[in-house]
Design brief:
It is a single chain. The chain is about 30% helix and about 20% strand. With about 240 residues, the protein is α/β, with parallel strands linked by helices. The strands form 3 sheets. A 5-stranded mixed β-sheet has the order 2-1-5-3-4, with no helix packed on it. A 4-stranded parallel β-sheet has the order 7-6-8-9, with helices on both faces.
Length: about 240
């Protein structure tokens, strides 16, 4: 670029997206004089999904603002909890976030997920079509203009990923109400009605069952229930204000 020079600073949380020279307070950036502030911010590495308020010389502006010479731009982080207006809060997760998808579903959060890699254009179109917040660790995917809304998942550890999403969006929690396999709603199931789908040991040991109304999968409190219950209890203890 060869145009007006501006000065820009990023919130500390955004430091992982930008080059080292932009992490320590205000730094100089030369623009082309025509690009919007949103384009400048993304060209420096920050997806607009992660940028909160944009301030120019202390006043709020939109991403459509065209920076002028000498302006000081502050890029703040997103507000937490982050409001998502215009649709029921629901998510779409990319192919790399299967464990997070299952844990969100365990807590009753609407979390769409496809285990096959359907590609960035299809994910962006899905987000727009169903008005879902796309969760991803792919910065390029989050820059796609077709997205309805998106959010970067900051950790690669499932426990931390779950906490990040629950803290950022404060979804309503309704544990044990959603199928972890397909995201469909669960309903109580009579043991006799599902008997033929159970192994002999399960029929002998358990009496309480639930079944997905979409994929027909049957659930009971089996060997893994204690581990799943710990995930639920930890989430409710920390984010229980949003629980059903």
């Amino acid at each position: 670029m060869n145009g007006p020079e501006i000065h820009i600073s990023f919130a500390p949380r955004l430091g992982l997206f930008v080059a080292a020279r932009h992490r320590a307070g205000r730094s100089a950036v030369v623009t082309d004089g025509a690009s919007t502030l949103g384009h400048v911010v993304e060209s420096l590495g920050v997806p607009l999904t992660e940028a909160g308020r944009l301030l120019v010389d202390g006043r709020p502006v939109t991403p459509a603002h065209v920076p002028a010479a000498g302006e000081h731009v502050e890029v703040l982080g997103v507000e937490r909890p982050q409001p998502v207006p215009g649709a029921p809060l629901r998510f779409l997760l990319d192919v790399h976030l299967g464990t997070l998808a299952r844990r969100l579903r365990l807590l009753g959060v609407d979390a769409a997920y496809e285990s096959e890699d359907i590609g960035d254009p299809a994910l962006a179109a899905w987000s727009a079509r169903e008005r879902r917040v796309l969760l991803s660790r792919d910065r390029g995917l989050l820059r796609r203009r077709e997205l309805w809304a998106g959010a970067y998942v900051y950790s690669d550890q499932p426990d931390e990923q779950l906490r990040d999403v629950l803290e950022r969006f404060a979804p309503r929690l309704a544990p044990w109400k959603r199928c972890t396999a397909c995201n469909g709603p669960l309903t109580d199931a009579d043991k006799e009605a599902v008997r033929e789908r159970l192994e002999q040991g399960t029929r002998r040991t358990y009496d309480v069952f639930a079944q997905c109304t979409e994929c027909d999968r049957v659930y009971w409190r089996g060997a893994h229930h204690a581990r799943l219950e710990a995930i639920v209890e930890n989430a409710l203890r920390e984010f229980g204000g949003a629980a059903a």
